[in-house]
Amino acid sequence: MTPNHTLLTPRLKLRMIRPEENQAFSSAIQSSPSLYPWLDWCHQKFSIEEATDFIMHTRLNWIKNNAYGFGIYHNKSNDFIGMVALTELSPSFNMGAIGYWICDHHQFKGYAKEAIVALIHFCFSELHLTRLECICDPDNLASHHVALNCGAEKEGLARNRYLFDGKPKDGVVFSFIPDSYSR
Questions:
Q1: What domains can be seen in the chain, in order of their start residue?
Q2: What are the tens digits of pLDDT across the range 125-158?
Q3: Is the pLDDT of residue 181 over 80?
Q4: Which residues form the N-acetyltransferase domain (predicted)?
Q5: Which are the contacts of 115, defined by CB distance < 8 A and separation ≥ 6?
Q6: Nearest to 95 by CA among 123, 54, 62
Q7: How far is CA 37 from its chain centroid?
Q8: CA distance 183 to 181
Q9: How far out from the chain centre does Cα 83 lie?
Q10: Which long-range contacts (CB under 8 A, 24 or more apart) does 101-106 make?
Q11: What phi and psi, each to the nearest 5 degrees, are found at residue 11?
Q12: What is the DSSP letter of 125?
């Protein structure tokens, strides 16, 4: 998969974040405190250097076919809205995990669902994966709602499912399967 791959929806363009967009990316994180409890790399003083590193690592993951992080942009204004990503890609099990976040001032407009549905279709139709998981903090009810609204099935609580600030945390497992996914 090339880093130039783009997904389009009626309102959105999903594409790789460009290095020259590091300032906008940094500002988006700094102005989105709702992300801080759920994403351990997000914080109020997220610097341009951290943004540059993040963007570079996202690009390297694309090139290595380890993960695909898409910036979410408005089709008309080109405003940066957030991200969706396929992570934890496991070719042996033909599955991956998806993650998402939306900048605070773009939340509650349906952008998350629109972007996630596009990512899911990409994963099932172009990558031919047979399972996608979405792992959410048990207290992140907004993310639970988004996953369910996108057609996920809640499977249960997995103990020590992910790390947050280097410490294991439980995660609620949501799944998408091509045969039962029809959004």
A1: 7-129 (3.40.630.30)
A2: 999 999 999 999 999 999 999 999 999 999 999 9
A3: no
A4: 15-170
A5: 9, 12, 14, 70, 72, 81, 82, 84, 100
A6: 123
A7: 16
A8: 6
A9: 5
A10: 101/32, 101/35, 101/38, 101/39, 101/42, 102/72, 103/28, 103/31, 103/32, 104/31, 104/32, 104/33, 104/34, 104/35, 105/31, 105/32, 106/79, 106/81, 106/82
A11: -115, -15
A12: I
The answer to whether the beta carbons of residues 174 and 148 sit under 8 Å apart is yes
39-49, pLDDT tens digit by residue? 999 999 999 99
Could you tell me the two tokens for 139? 């207290």
* Helical pair 22-30 and 48-64, crossing angle rounded to 10 deg: 110
Maximum C-alpha span of the chain: 43
Chain center to CA of 176: 15
DSSP-derived secondary structure for 60-115: HHHHHTS-EEEEEEETTT--EEEEEEEEEEETTTTEEEEEEEE-GGGTTSSHHHHH
